[in-house]
User: What shape does this take?
Amino acid sequence: MGDNDGLKQLRRSDYAYFLSYRTRWSDNDQYAHVNNSIYYHLFDSIVNTYLITHCGLSPTRSNQIGLVISSSCRFYSPVSFPAVLDLGLRVTKLGKSSVTYEVAVFEEGQDVPGAVGGYTHVFVDSETRKSTPMAVRTREGLAQICAGMKDSVASKL
Assistant: This one.
């Protein structure tokens, strides 16, 4: 997910794919801001939405699934209900059987993220759980949002 100092410098234009999320009252914790665990739900939502809609991955019908092997999140500013969030997604590393996603959480209308995190998937056979090269369509879809390719990708999504 890049160096932590560099994450603070990211802007909305660094991401090629976006998904909106309207916070819920139940997302807030006792300190009246979105609980840390909710951010991981947000990461999971944008990644899987992208995999289903742009990579042809069907969680219930695919021979291949992605398993999370690591995850992280850096928090820069709190958000609270009733905020609307824009989640930005990009791929920072694309291997033969693994991919590292980076997700930035922006409050609607803001250019600076309140949090940046993500995780690494290793693709495995859905039955044996053994690592396997990712499907061609999955890899092609993920390549479309690789960091550094955003200018050519944004017009395609």
Q: What stands out?
A: The CA atoms of residues 92 and 147 lie 5 Å apart. The helical segments are 4-7, 36-54, 136-143, 150-153. The first strand starts at residue 17 and ends at 22. The chain has four helices and five strands.
